[in-house]
C-alpha cells in the first residue's frame, strides 16, 4: 500500500527504491536520507506546478487575445472564436 501512495505522489521507481530501506528502518536507524529525498521530491513537484501554472497563464492570455477574433475553419468558413 505504501508503494502505491509513493507512486500516486509522482515518485519514480528509482526514488521509491531509495526510500524503501529508510521506511523499513526503525526511527533510530534512519540517517536523514528519507527526509532529504522527500524534501527534494516536494521541491520538484512544486517547481512542476509553477511551470504548469505559467503554461496555463500563457494559454489563458492567448485565449483572451484571440477571443472574438475572426477565425477561418479548415473548410474555409469564417467564424468567430467564443471561448469562455
Lay out the secondary structure.
Blueprint: H1 2-8, H2 13-24, H3 33-66, E1 70-72, E2 78-80
Antiparallel strand pairs: 1-2
Number of strands: 2
Q: Which strand-content bin applies to the residues?
A: 5-15%
Class by alpha and beta content: mainly alpha
Order of helices and strands: HHHEE
Percentage of residues assigned to helices:
55-70%
Q: Which stretches of 5+ consecutive residues score pLDDT under 50? A: none
DSSP helix count? 3
| Order of neighbouring strands in the sheet with most strands | 1-2
Tell me the radius of gyration.
Answer: 23 Å
Average pLDDT score: 84
Span of the ends, CA to CA: 41 Å
Q: What do you see in this structure?
A:
With 84 residues, this protein is mostly helical. 63% of the residues lie in helices and 7% in strands. β1 and β2 (78-80) form a beta hairpin. The protein is elongated and about 65 Å long. The mean pLDDT is 84.
Brief account:
With 84 residues, the protein is mostly helical. The protein contains three helices and two strands. The chain starts with a helix and ends with a strand.
Name the descriptors.
84 residues, two-stranded antiparallel sheet, 3 helices
Amino acid at each position: 500500500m505504501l508503494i502505491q501512495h509513493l507512486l500516486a505522489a509522482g515518485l519514480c521507481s528509482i526514488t521509491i527504491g531509495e526510500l524503501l530501506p529508510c521506511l523499513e528502518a526503525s526511527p533510530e536507524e534512519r540517517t536523514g536520507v528519507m527526509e532529504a529525498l522527500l524534501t527534494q521530491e516536494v521541491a520538484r513537484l512544486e517547481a512542476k506546478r509553477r511551470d504548469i501554472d505559467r503554461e496555463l497563464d500563457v494559454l489563458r492570455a492567448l485565449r483572451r487575445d484571440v477571443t472574438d477574433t475572426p477565425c477561418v475553419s479548415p473548410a474555409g468558413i469564417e467564424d468567430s472564436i467564443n471561448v469562455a
